[in-house]
Every structure is written in structure tokens, then in C-alpha cells.
């Protein structure tokens, strides 16, 4: 047994969610806590400081280097962090650095499952083999009770095999996830239900929001400059006019201004108005119409356009599309009735244009032509 009663070893918990996986590191922490409690009960490890080092587990703050200097024993690598490469894993490297400073006192890295540490045994071994073989770091799988660095070479060989074949399997899962994402783009889908306008019947607090009026009000109030940045005048007041806050007003003012500069604002507003009219024309309660198959079909093939009417360069979560500029077909140019009753692949006019783009060209894009992580 890698950890014995009374070992009372200093411990650090490593959290990581892979590309293409569901769940979150917050959920991993929740699952790990009762297992850690059992280890504490038997005095196998010392009490942990559950403060987070690394990525914000609630995903409310952007990660900075200062997050590596925080005090705590829970090291959160965050969401979508690859387990196949050591490059870019600053949080794990910080955990290793702190553990090495404790030498010769042993420090155990706790992981919910071994693949939280890495998908490729070779990569992890190149980084930490000397630490668990000759140094003071141990690695312990909370689910299986197996680990590295406890002197059981046979067990380590088994774990090596499991990580290798598990990694190969995971690569297949990631490829399927990437392929699915690329296929969605070709069907006109990129973004989410939260990235499109709040349409009639959508069920949001401000369903049916008058975006044309909002754009006119914001244009009338104008902008002011501060520290080289532009801000909407009276943003708190304007936000309250539409049941929103000042941050919403600031962002949408920039968005409307950008769409106007890019020549798509009027087309964007006309498509929103046409969608609202279509939903109301379906009859019955707008909410039922919005949830109906015809409206769902339209949105499935036009979410990309409603999110990025002036085109977009997707994020690096899509390895092929990240080097392309994507232009989605305008819904009204196809026809809402056609989109409501047909799959995009069966519509001859439905064409998603994908143009290769280099890093210099990416820098020239407007912020609303690049994929963001949040609304």
C-alpha cells in the first residue's frame, strides 16, 4: 500500500480537466475531499490548506502569474489543459518547485485519478521521474490507491501501461470532439445559446430586447476616452433602460460600433427583427414557438452568424479553424422558412466560407471577430 497509517506526509492536490471532457475541476475537488478526509483520519497525510494556487476554480478571474504565488495546497491547472505535454503547465511546475524545496521531507501529490497528472507517461516521467525515484515527491491516485515513488516497481510498470493506453484512448476522444466542433462550423454553428441576441420567447429575463433602440440610444449618448480607451457615456443609466447593468451597456456599445464600422450593423438588426417576427408568427405562446423544432433548426444553422455577423477567427480549441477566418451565411439571405425546414447540407445556397489566416492577419481583426470564452 503506497500510503500507510501514520505516514503523516505533506500533501498537495493536483486538479486538471482535459480537452473534450465534461465536468470541471471544481467537481474534481468535491469528489476528492471525502477521499482526502479518509487519509487524514488514518494520519496518512497532514492537513491540507484548501486555498487554490493557479487557475480560479470558479472561472471568474483571468489567470495571471501572481496566482502562482498564492498560498495553498490545491493546485488547479484549470479547464481544457492538455495532459499530453508539460509545456505551458505552469501550475504543475509550481507545485513541483514547492515540493522540491521540502526535500528530503517527502511530499505526496494527490490526484483524483492518475490521468489528472498526465496522459502520457513519457512526458510525466521526463519531468518527474528523478523526483519520485530518487527524490522526495510521491504521486498517489485517490481512486485506485496506486502510485509512483513508493518503491513498488511492478505497480509503477502497471501504471505506466495504463497511462499509455489510457492516453491513446483519450487522444481518440479528443479527435472526435475536435471533429464534431469542425463539423458544427460547417453547419453554421459556433458559439452558444448565450452568445446570440435575447429573442422573443427565449426565456431570458430580457427576451425580446429592442436591440435597434439600444443601438440608437448608445449612439446618441456617445463615448468618452480615458487612458486611451473608449467608454460609453451614462452606461449605468442606459443599462437600466434595458434591464441590464453598465458592463452590458459598455460591451454592447462597443459591439454596435464595431458592427457599424464593419458594415454589418443594419443587417444584424434586421435579422434579429425578422427572427422575432418569425417566432411570433408561429402562433401560440412565444416560449413554445421558440422551443419548437422550426425555430431550433434556424438557430442551429445561424448561431454562428448571430454571434459573429462580421466573421470570426475561432479559438485554439479548434486546431484547424484557429488558422482560418470563418464567414457564416446571413439567415435572411437564405430565408428563414428554408432554414426552418431543411438541414444546411441540403440547402445549396448555404455555404460557410473558411479562409486561411496568418498570425499577422489575426492581429488586424476587431475584438468581435475573435472567439471569446465568455459572453
Provide a compact summary of the structure.
The protein is built from 13 helices and ten strands. The protein has 375 residues and is an alpha/beta fold. It has two domains: 10-182, Resolvase, N-terminal catalytic domain (Rossmann fold, 3-Layer(aba) Sandwich), CATH 3.40.50.1390; 188-369, no CATH class.
General description of the model:
This protein is of the alpha/beta class and 375 residues long. It has 2 domains: 10-182, Rossmann fold (3-Layer(aba) Sandwich); 188-369, no CATH class. It contains 13 helices and 10 strands. It has helices spanning 25-41, 90-101, 121-133, 153-186, 211-221, 235-241, 246-261, 265-281, 286-291, 293-307, 331-334, 336-341, 359-363, and strands at 10-15, 52-54, 74-76, 107-111, 137-141, 147-148, 223-226, 229-232, 324-327, 353-356. The strands form 3 sheets. It has a 6-stranded mixed beta sheet with strand order 2-3-1-4-5-6, with helices on both faces. The chain has a two-stranded antiparallel ribbon with strand order 7-8. β5 and β6 (147-148) form a beta hairpin. α5 (211-221) packs across α7. The chain is elongated and about 70 Å long.
The helix/strand order is EHEEHEHEEHHEEHHHHHEHHEH
Structural class: alpha/beta
Shape: elongated
Helical segment count: 13
Q: Helicity level, as a percent range?
A: 40-55%
Keywords:
single chain; 375 residues; two-stranded antiparallel sheet; Rossmann fold; 43% helix; 11% strand; six-stranded mixed beta sheet; alpha/beta
Write the layout of secondary structure elements.
Blueprint: E1 10-15, H1 25-41, E2 52-54, E3 74-76, H2 90-101, E4 107-111, H3 121-133, E5 137-141, E6 147-148, H4 153-186, H5 211-221, E7 223-226, E8 229-232, H6 235-241, H7 246-261, H8 265-281, H9 286-291, H10 293-307, E9 324-327, H11 331-334, H12 336-341, E10 353-356, H13 359-363
Parallel strand pairs: 1-3, 1-4, 2-3, 4-5
Antiparallel strand pairs: 5-6, 7-8, 9-10
